[in-house]
Fold these 3 entries.
Entry 1:
Amino acid sequence: MLFDPPLVEGRLISRYKRFLFDAELEDGTIITGNCPNTGSMLGLTAPGSRIFMSVHDKPGRKYAHQFEMIEAEGTLVGVNTGMPNRIAEEAILSRMIPSLAPYPLLAREKRYGVNSRIDILLSGEGLPTAYVEVKNVHFSRVPGLAEFPDTKTERGAKHLAELGNVAESGHRAIMLYVIQRGDCSAFRICADLDPSYAAAFEHAKARGVEAYALDCTVSQSQITAKSLIPLV
């Protein structure tokens, strides 16, 4: 995922109301912008941190600046929760995930389950339909280890249950965790912050749900899928 036009740099003043942030640009201008992440962003909201923003000039848009990434613990971390689906699609189409490489057809946002949409639906003649749910990961508190979730997520547990239903119906069900930071070599479920999600994950695996973790290369110009990393 290439940023075009290039991102602009600033310093975070605060992130608030979940979808807003204030920052100081390099020329000293104070701006308010949109934060495309309504989660907790645990560990990624320290005032004074270097951040990078996209700038949009569409008519009617309230805020021109959008929060894309932050420098935390010496590494750049993507925070835009709209990115992982695009990163996952690029990785699948480039055959980076071997078990998904045979699928020739990819569709997005198809309805399934109980009032849900699957992020990516893969199909092909003679192949079981593959339902791919994508989750954004940017939490890390142990060097080299990415974790999900960073707070309680009932919605995430619901998705695991619905994927379990898919797997038991004879289709493939895949949970794909996309890690928007480049300093992690392993991934695990964060059981202490959300025991219910951890239990739902184990139950989903027992029902036949597959799980993969995909790390990324993150720079000021782009975020791209790099490789699969182990779940521990």
Entry 2:
Amino acid sequence: MRDFTDARTSESEDELWIVEHDPVFTQGIAGKAEHLLINPASIPVVKTDRGGQITYHGPGQTVVYVLFDLKRAGYGVRELVVRIENAVIAVLRELDVEAYGKRDAPGVYVNDAKIASLGLKIRNGRSYHGVALNVNMDLVPFSFINPCGYEGLRVTHLHDFGVDLPANDVGTTLSAHLVTALTAPA
């Protein structure tokens, strides 16, 4: 992602990358080691250059990396975050799951539990990293950390709301909503 972003020109097209990771904790640039409480499963911890604290990625979670030119779009980082959150909320609405964002704690929440985490890096006016939406995954590793740096933060997934879809299918739907949200006029 970093290499792609560094090589971009003003003519480079934006891209969305949909992935599903093997079990891994990622720790953002603001991440504090004490937010990894225990690691009985010896899950790898990878330090990244994205914003935010520590989170977990694993099978059953769709991650969409947002490689986007903010300068060309004409809006800033906060607007990008809101647009990404709104795309997730729109997907969940289609699945009859009521969700919302929080200005002071980026991500998407359902009943005070986090269902999607957001972490971005902006370099030369272009973003990389992105959003992780919990679809149908093992949530136990979230209990090994203070998710996103918040002690006691509950985490949920779509499966808890009767949604049983493959993570990749949800990622494809999310990507379509992201295209709409990101390209709407500023």
Entry 3:
Amino acid sequence: MKEKNQEKLKEEIIINDKKEELKEEDVEGKRDSDRMGTEPIHGLMLKMSIPLTFSMFIVALYNVVDSIFVSRINEKALTAVTLCFPFQNLNIAVGVGTAVGMSALLSKYLGAKMYDKVERVAHNGFILVLINYIVFFIIGCFAHPIIAAQTSDPQIIEYGTTYLRITQWLSIAAMVQFILEKLLQSTGKTKYILVMQVSGALFNIVMDPILIFGLLGFPAMGVKGAAIATVFGQILSCVIGVILNVKVNKELGLSLSKIKPHWQTIKEIYKMGIPVIILQSVGALMNFSINKILIAFSSTAVATFGVYFRLQSFVFMPIFGMNSASVPIIAYNYGARKKERLESVVSLGVRYGIIIMSVGTIVFWLIPEQLMALFDASPEMTAMGVVALHIMSLNFPFAGFCIMRGAAFQALGKSVYSMNMSLVRQLFVIIPVAFIFSKIGGVNMVWWAFPLAELFGTGMCLIYSKRIKRDIISRM
């Protein structure tokens, strides 16, 4: 009897030890997400946004470097890549929208301690990636008619068709990458996103000149080389993202066996994600329409517009990084019912947004010639670019305000507000105003459509912010 009691006591000790180990692992796993509800706001915002902001800078850098090297082929190559830009934006729109919907839902459930739902959301994100990829593979199959619908120049059509096919057919890595980044972001592990972004971006930057111009024994592939360097950079980031999520994001319980469709979860993801997809997609439609308006003047006008969009990404990407960092913090504190912290995040984000974007406007006004020179611009393109950069950069501070306010819209389940603002600004102001101005004032009048549209967007943002305050925040 004594021996049996001793054996039973040993078993209880072993079981208790295992429970303590599991408890310690559970606390350790949840520590990163719980800090979104406990750490001082200012430090938390900086801690989460700086890695994202830096990674966004890297993304902007390799987009600009990509265009810089392409411009060294000739101006038509740069024009062709610009014509592909709306469809790359559409790809990003669907990928980011799906990822944002998933991230906001994850953070909400983490804040409410609903860990079974956290796992389900994470795994259904990968199912949506496969569905989305099929759509963009089909777009790649129609690359030639898509580019031919925008220009009749045979060389631009050839360049554009090649670039669009490769970037769409191999787009699955970029779409998985968006999901992997949001999984890390939703649990507060933003420093690992930096590793993903930097690795892919540096690979792209290094391989661009090698594949475009045929260095180190590689054949010169021109525009095709630029596209290949881009997608292989995305593949590298994706592989590293998979490894990091499996290694460090254990609170999500990622496993291939758990990837099963749950239609209610998918519906909830897209309830938050579809407005973001529409919001981003409207931008792609706007770019396509402006390209059509500008090509009537010259391919130089299209190339100039492409240069502006590459350069302005340096200003916008940090704000998008801060927006992405704010969404899970706001969603977490909403789920945890911490009103004061939620309001502090929104207020601080808006201040940062306006300051950063104002600096961008100043830079565009001070050194426009030097910025255009990066793209080997001709005198004609430089003169056009200086005017374009001066005028369109006036919208930056207003955009900073709206983007950071939009973080609250997304996190509180009102992404439709951001969608409405984007629809009005880009479809009902920019496109028609740009078209009218192109008829009555020439190409330089087209640029004024952008700051005018941003004023409309800011007015709507103020109205929606008051509505959010009244209907949601004040009732917490």
